[in-house]
Amino acid sequence: MPMITTLGVAALLLILERMLKLFDFVVNQGGPVEVVFRMLANLTPHYMGLALPVGLLLGVLVAFRKISLSSEYDAITSSGTSLPQLIRPLLMLAAFLAIINTLLVGWIQPHSRYAYRGLVFDLRSGALGASIRVGEFVEIGDDITLMIEESRNQGAELGGIFLERRDERSTVTVTAERGGFFATDDDQTILLRLFNGVLVDLNESQNKPRVLNFERQDLTVTLPEREVFRERGGQELEMTLPELFTEMQNPVNSVEERAAFQGNFHWRLMHSFSFFILTFLAIPMGITNKRTGRGTGIVIGLSLLIVYNELMEGMETAVKNGASPYFTIWALFAAFAFLSLFFFRVSAFKAGGEPLAYIDKVVEVFAGPIKRMGRKLMGMGEQS
Q1: Among the four 159, 194, 207, 363, which has the fewest Cβ within 10 Å?
Q2: Cα–Cα nearest to 319, from 308, 330, 309
Q3: Which residues are within 8 A (CB) of 95 and not within 5 positions of it... i.e. 6 or more apart?
């Protein structure tokens, strides 16, 4: 339950933070609001990939901290159950999450990222039916300017309409009390139906303009040609794992492209293997002294995970610049695994082993002089 709760909260916070930016982007592009939720749905696999390691780490850490403070951990170990035995079901959980993560980063994320970028392209090109902004002159179709004073029912009902259509020899100006857009059989045209208005036709071949009062008038609007979004691929983030493996060995690609594919391929593999290491890190960070009840392990565990993730991205960049993935990405993985296994070994095989005790001693070494200096300053202040 701690893991599920942490996973849900982390993913929700990431999505909510992104939602505000997406609402601002969609509104500025004049697109329908419902496209925001389609974009968020395509971003969810990306955020789940970020939240899964945090959820596993905090879930195991909080669970072991809870049984440590309630003396359940002492009772379990006193009955003859060792820490290596306790970690077995957690490794099964880590394996399950690693499989899910591999599916996410290997197949789901590339397709969802492509779909997200496709929505962004459609918004900017107007393919999603950009809404007409109230009180602004907007260019629609070929040589048509439109301005409306009121919009209801998500733009289906318009009020206070002004329209001007121009060509080389004439200009048609229309004002109408109300109207609305309707779809036609042709995807490249839409029908603008106007009610209770006036049409003024200015033509060079006429001595004076023609004026028409109407109760209903239909105008056909030809939409501009829309560009077709590119096909998926060409970028490492939009390729699946098998596609990355193929392209990083393809001699047709340049050296820089193959290096980028190789870096991302090894990064995805290491990201999944890291779930097993997180289990060995979370347990010693969760076991705490019930007399003090310090929460140092939560801070240290999250700090190590954040630093590890930042260094992972740096190692991927190094591989893109020509470095070997085995001396960068996998060397970092080995160092992180060694540190986690060292903490776990102290907790599992050393009597009274508490890895956080070493960290507390280091904190006391730096905090001691600061406390003494603070007491001196306070004493000098009292004397003065």
Answers
A1: 207
A2: 330
A3: 275, 276
Main-chain phi, psi angles of 196, to 5 degrees: 55, 75
pLDDT in tens, 131-144: 566 777 777 766 78
- The Cα 323–Cα 258 span in angstroms is 12
Structure tokens at 309: 């993730």
This model's pTM is above 0.85: no
Q: At what angle do helices 329-349 and 83-103 cross, to 10 degrees?
A: 150
Instruction: Please classify residue 61 by burial: count the beta carbons closer than 10 Å to its beta carbon, then call 0-12 exposed, 13-18 middle and 19+ buried.
Output: buried
Task: Report the C-alpha gap between 295 and 18 in whole angstroms.
Answer: 30
pLDDT digits (tens, 9 = 90+) for 276-323: 999 999 999 988 877 666 677 888 899 999 999 999 999 999 999 999
Domain ranges of the chain: 2-124+232-368, 138-222
Q: Outline where the chain has alpha helix (H).
A: 2-29, 35-69, 72-78, 83-103, 109-125, 241-247, 255-286, 296-320, 329-349, 355-383
Say what the pLDDT of residue 20 is: 76
